[in-house]
Specification:
Structural class: mainly alpha
Shape: rod-shaped
Distance between the termini: 52 Å
Order of helices and strands: H
Helix content: over 70%
Largest sheet: none
Keywords: Membrane, Transmembrane, Transmembrane helix
Number of strands: 0
Length: 37
Amino acid sequence: MSIISIISIIIMVFFLAFIMRKLKLDKTPHYEENNYD
């Protein structure tokens, strides 16, 4: 049971990090793309 809990926490952490990273990346280059377009 503890292994499943650890895996779930790791997946959630990776998922949150991925979302935050995607939001940060989307916010910065998106403005540059819009300016060029």
